[in-house]
Structures are given as C-alpha cells and as structure tokens.
C-alpha cells in the first residue's frame, strides 16, 4: 500500500479507489480499512478533508520525533533517514513536547537553511506522567515538572490533588495536554515524600522517566531457569574454542556486567590475531520469550548516579552472560589479523567459547601497561594492543573522525546517598584502547551487513543542519577560527576542535560543536556516521545492555548459519519499529542519567553557598552570562541585573557584554571569579555574583 502511494499513485486516492488498484477482494475490505486506519494513526499516511489518502511528504508533511532547544524552539527529526530536520518556532509547537512523535507541516524552505514549519498533530505522546513538586493554592494546585523537565506547569484541580501537601514531591498523570484548556491538566497518583527525604530524588527520576525498576515475576523466573541450566557440552557444538588463548576483560572498576573481552597473539608472519569476544546473549534470549519482550521494552540499561537499572535480569546480565574470570562463557567473536602498524589484513566472525583469565579495571590495565608488569604475559599483550590501537586511532583521525574534548563529571556519594564530591572522570589510554577495538568491531560488522545486504539496525549520525551550524560558526569566529560556509565535513570540525586543544575555550568550543550535531540514532537505512567519518556503523559490542546490539547479533548469527534469504516484509516493519523504539528509549535513558547527575550537583552546591570559584564564560545572552565553574563542572548564571558597576550592552554578533561607560567587556571564553549566590533545587538554577574578571591567562584582572 505504502509503495503504491509513494511510487505509482498520481494523486491522493479514496479508500475504495486504493483498494481497487491493489486488487483487494470484497471479503478483505474491512481488514484493509483497519490497516489504512492504523497507518493513518501511525502517521504513515495522511487523509485530506475529502477523505483522500497520500503519504505525508506529498503534502509537505514530515513524521518524526520532536527535540526542543534551550530557547524553547523545536526540531522535528524525521523518521526517514536522510531527510532534513524541520525547524519549528516555539510558538508553533502547539501542545507537543520534547520526545513526542509528531506530524509537522513545512511552511517555507529558506535558502541555505532548514525547512521551517509547525506541528499539526501529535502522533504518539512520549510522556504520560511527570514527577515534580506540588504547590497548593486555594481551590487548586500545580506541579512544577522536574522529571521530565517539561516547559510549563501542570494544573491540578483540587479534587485531583490526592491528599498532597504543599511542597511534596509527587507523581502526576497527565489527563489532558491543554488542547481545550489554558495549560495541561493532571491528577496526583503518588506522593513520594519531601524532596530532601533520602532516595526521593532518584526515585522521582525513575518513575518520572517511566523506567521500570523491577522485572516481572515471569521474566525473573525464565531468566533464573536459563541461568541454572548453565553451559552444557552440546552448547559447544560448532563453536570455535578460544579457551587456549589469553583472554581478559577491561571495564570500569564497579562494573557488574562484562559483555566484551579481548585476546591477542602473535602469528608466524609477524602479524597479530586480535579477538574481540562479545557475550553471546542471543544464545540465551530467544525472540518472543518473556525475557526478550521485557528487554525490547527497556531497550537499554540505565546508569543513574546511584544505581544501574539493567536491561536483562541479574541472573543473566551479571551471571551466565557476563564474561567473568575462570568460567567458560559463550561468545560471538570478531577475529582480526592486524599488522603492527594497524593495517587489517583479514577479519572473520564466529560463535566461540572463551575463559577469561582476568577481570581488569581500566586503572589496573594502565598500571600494568606502564609498570614493570608489562613483562608478564598480560602486560606484554596490553603493550602490543596499545601500539596497534594507537595506529588504528590515527587512521580514524586521518579520515576526519571527531574527538570531542568534553570532560565528564562524576559525583561521589556518601553512605547515605548524598553528594560528597564532584570530580572529572579521567580518560585513560586504556579507555581509548578499548574504544578503538569496539569501534573497529562495530564498523566491520556494519561493512559486512552492507556488503551482503543484511537487514539490520545501523547506528547512523547524519550531518548537522545549517541552522545548528550557524551558532558554531559564530563561536569559532570569536576565537579567530573559521568553518566552511557550506558543505561542512567531519574533518572540518575535527580540525576546529584540535585547534582549541589546551586553550581555555577548548571545553566551550567542543560543547557548542557537540550541541550543533544531530543525535545519533538507530535506523534500518545506512546513511553513515558523520562524527566517526564512517561509511557504515552499528552497535555490536554490548548486547547485555543494548537491545539494538542483540538484534545485530541475531542477524549476524543468521547469516553465519547460511540463512541468506531476504527478510519478509513484516520482519522489516518490526525492525523499523525497533529502531524507533530503541532510539526513543536511549534518549530517555540518557536524559534520566543526566538528570540524576544534575540533581546531585545541585545538592552538592547548596552546601557551598557563599564560596568563590574560578570559571569560564560559557554563554552570553541579553539577560546575563553563563559560567562553567572549575573543578566541579557546574554551570551557573551571572544575571545582567547583578552587574551594577555600569550599564552593559549585549552584542549578539560577538556574544559579548560591554559596559557603556567603562568599556569593560565580557565575552565567551573569558575567565572570571564568581561567588555562589543562590541554588534553587526545584528549578535547578544556580545564580552567581561576579567577584572579579575578566582575567588574563595568568589569572589577573584585565
């Protein structure tokens, strides 16, 4: 039906006309109409007022997921890979919110810019409830949403308050999105407690983002049965035995699920065999099983500041699937023959069995690599891998892959779950080494899938839109750098970021560059990966924690077993649905992870009111300056109204504030000293007062 409407129909068609053209029999017509109605509900077809049907693009309509910027405007990211994002001004969003699947109408196509339009229909709501703080008023109340942080408050009629008191942290269902009311209307479902009660903050994130904490009983029972069965001799039939190789895992020190391991050995001709061994989750999790249905729904593990919410039950994720030391484990391996200078001579894939010799943390592996322990067998292997990985990394850089220099904050918690310290997560050589190997495996599976036309889930990263690049060009110009006016390539951004290396503005430029990018997502269509400058990429190396990787494993195993027949149409439709679902769940998980870190940052900063911090101006607006605080990676705002020594003029072109009388000038990248003046846990806002600055590189006031 969709193929006919797209390729053969010369005009919008009525239902009976379409049925006639498709040779639908009279006894099939009711089923045909149900299918047509479903396609309309899903946004795959649209119906005109006169009852004629067509596909959306023929009416200048686009179906996609809404993203909302800090400024309140939106971009619709089309379901179909390769289409341009549609810019939607905030006033044209109607009742749609971030994460909704929407139908947008394109109203204009400005030259050199993204098409612009408006939301005409919400196809699927991303959120059905929110977590937030309830505020009671005479006769009514309202919830300020925090999880997710939606724009606007949720109106609560008095009879729907559920006994909540002013200031309670609550869960509220959304009864109406405000189509016929001034604002969305909700009902209090659950009172979590006071915002400062232990555990309430993270619990609000879990529930507000609709993340399942516990597994259903039937899923746990099925997983326990699989785990108890263990590995039997018949399970090894047809598997290549790698138990005679030295295999190790390298993971974070607190990791409980180990889904990748590595091995290396020298061959007679001086090349090296490198094995990248991935937990064979597809052996245990069968399509359609209770475990599989739950894993599909979750789609990813979620890593919050104080806990992990796994995709698979513990008996699998931390048990029979995890590549723990001194236990036989079933794996799906990518085996490479690679020269000492990083040239891949051969690659192949096989179902295998391994026995890990050691579980190393990244810090352990680095210590061995840099110490006298490099003379041991593990140390020698790590030294070989490090040299080869550096060569592979350089090849990736040479083709233009972007390496964003953005430090990541880690919040250390005390025994009661309160924020004790904020520190920067180190990026070690061993992190880079494992990353290099995982990227190599992922790319090689993607290339094989392309070569053999396998229906699979690609990890795509489309080129940035011109609208988003405009801000990056302006930031680059402030620091004396330039980007091409059109046709930007990955190597152009990589060169820009490298030019800022070691400078105060490095973090700022990298952050703006990252925000100018489109989000990577899953798709059945391969359009390449812009950030990696890769023609084909997917996720293969983490099937314990990502459902997309499990799908890729199943497709690869199917091909390895000799099943080369084309996929059926319904399989392709299910794959497309999985791509959309996995992308949406990934975005939700990432937001929950960010929120959990942000709320602990806020908690930590509340204890430092009045303290002074050095920082770098990370944003300049007409209402003030954002400053990134050194040491804690927390951003706060110096409000323009707090600068009382002069009247300051905002220059949008240079992103600067200049005093009219004193000519004192603040711009992006300037270093300043500030005092922490206000921390609001509810809005998660931090206000700063300027102490001195801008500072010269030596730290003195200009």
Topology readout:
Blueprint: H1 2-7, E1 13-14, H2 15-21, H3 29-41, E2 46-47, E3 52-54, E4 61-68, E5 74-78, E6 86-88, E7 101-108, E8 116-124, E9 129-137, E10 140-147, E11 154-157, E12 169-176, E13 185-193, H4 200-208, H5 217-229, E14 240-241, E15 247-251, E16 260-266, E17 272-279, H6 290-298, E18 302-303, E19 308-309, H7 314-320, E20 328-338, E21 344-355, E22 358-361, H8 362-370, H9 377-398, E23 409-413, E24 419-424, H10 429-451, E25 458-460, H11 466-478, H12 490-499, H13 506-516, E26 521-523, H14 547-560, H15 569-606, E27 612-621, E28 624-629, E29 634-639, E30 648-651, E31 656-659, E32 665-667, E33 671-680, E34 685-695
Question: Which key features would you list for this structure?
Answer:
seven-stranded mixed β-sheet; Arc Repressor Mutant, subunit A; OB fold (Dihydrolipoamide Acetyltransferase, E2P); five-stranded antiparallel β-sheet; 6 domains; 34 strands; 702 residues; alpha+beta; globular; single chain
Using only CA atoms, what is the Rg?
27 Å
Portion in helices: 25-40%
User: How many separate domains?
Assistant: 6
Q: Determine the N-to-C terminus distance.
A: 69 Å
Structural class: alpha+beta
Beta-strand content estimate: 25-35%
Largest sheet: 7 strands, mixed
Give me the side-by-side strand order of the main sheet.
Answer: 14-21-20-17-16-15-22
Low-confidence stretches: none
Number of strands: 34
The number of helical segments is: 15
